[in-house]
Structures are given as C-alpha cells and as structure tokens.
Design brief:
- The structure is a single chain.
- This protein is mainly alpha-helical and about 210 residues long.
- The protein has two domains: about 80 residues, Endonuclease Iii, domain 2; about 100 residues, Endonuclease III, domain 1.
- About 55% of the residues lie in helices and about 0% in strands.
- α2 runs antiparallel to α7, α8 packs across α9 and α8 packs across α10.
- The radius of gyration is 18 Å and the shape is elongated.
C-alpha cells in the first residue's frame, strides 16, 4: 500500500471520529491499567460491568490492595480467567505502592514489569492515559492491518512496528483507536461489512464484497 492511500485511510477515519478513545470505562491511569489487565480474552462490555462496582468501592491502588485476592475475585468473577487476573491485579497494586508511590509509571519497561502486563497492555496505557503515539496490536488491529494491506505482518509485533513506521505522524496517536473500532464494528472477522465501509475503495483485500 502506498503512502498516499494510507494517509487517505486515516484522514477518513479521523473525519468521522475526530477524538477516538477506548470503550473501557475508567477514571484514572490506575483504573485504566486495571481495566486493560482485566480485558485480556474478555469483551470491554463485560469488563465495564464488573469495574463499575469495583472502581466505586476500590478506586485506588491502596483501596484495591486492601481487598485482597479473594474479595477482588468476587467483583470480577463474571470475567474469564478471573482468579489469575485477581492475583495479578493485587500484585500490581502492591508494586505500584512500594515502588512507584501509588502512581502508574510512564515508561514501557516499568509497565511491562508489572504482573500480567505485556507489551499490548503497556501500549494501551501509554497511549490512552499519557498520550504517547503507541499502537497496541490486538486481534482487531492485526486483522485489519493484514486484510486491508495497511501493514501486513505475521506477528502482532511485526504489525505494530510496520504501523509505527508507516502511519503518518499526525495520525499516530489515535491510529490505535480508529483501527480497533473499525475492526470491531465494520471489518469484522467472519463477514466484513464492506458495503458500509468508508475505506472500501482504498482497501486491498481481494475478497471484499462490493456491489
């Protein structure tokens, strides 16, 4: 895909959604970190249902750490892998309190050192909480990047590095959200909705359904 086509894709996505953001509900960088940690292999809808009550009762690292694993697990038991996630979340709270003054660190290295936090989660926090131009490649972004020809790659990391290199700078900070939303609601896994896609003429997917 050539640079002009890439730029036009993001110009159109920006035109319909000039200020995109995550669909996870949160009130602070800490709450975003916990919400993203809980969202692995779960939908944002299911996470939001659990965190509304959790964040009302335990909005800070010290309040959440005070719950302990068992009580935290009770809040999030409707989410997949909830016991492992409860363990990681409590351990993360304790590290934030002991090593970071209760604040979420702004470096990738420090974030990835937290239990249950990998590169994708770190990228979401850096981008959404702190405005860094990172791109967290989830299943939606991986699919859209490969299917459209925007940034083909065999692994999420390969796609991420290609996007960081080829997305025009003025669109880089919001690219993550536009691509996730496009993959979630339009360029869906089983049957992409090409008939209502605003970038269908720019897409290089050979199987696209037009007309």
């Amino acid at each position: 895909m050539n640079p002009a086509k890439r730029a036009e894709i993001f110009a159109r996505l920006q035109a319909v959604n000039p200020a995109p953001t995550t669909e996870l509900e949160y009130g602070s960088p800490f709450q975003l970190l916990i919400a993203v940690l809980l969202s692995a292999q779960a939908t944002d809808v299911s996470v939001n249902k659990a965190t509304r009550r959790l964040f009302a009762d335990a909005p800070t690292p010290d309040a959440m750490a005070a719950l302990g694993e068992e009580r935290l697990a009770d809040y999030i038991k409707t989410i997949g892998l909830f016991r492992t996630k409860a363990k990681n979340a409590i351990a993360t709270c304790n590290i934030l309190l002991s090593q970071h003054g209760g604040e979420v660190p702004r470096s990738r290295e420090a974030l990835e050192a937290l239990p249950g936090v990998g590169r994708k989660t770190a990228n979401v926090v850096l981008n959404t909480a702190f405005g860094e131009p990172t791109i967290a490649v989830d299943t939606h972004i991986f699919r859209v990047s490969n299917r459209t020809g925007l940034a083909p790659g065999k692994t999420p990391l390969a796609v991420e590095l290609k996007l960081l290199k080829t997305v025009p700078e003025q669109y880089r900070r919001d690219a993550h959200h536009w691509l996730i939303l496009h993959g979630r609601y339009v360029c869906t896994a089983r049957r992409p909705q090409c008939e209502r896609c605003l970038i269908v003429d720019l897409c290089e997917f050979k199987g696209k359904a037009i007309g």
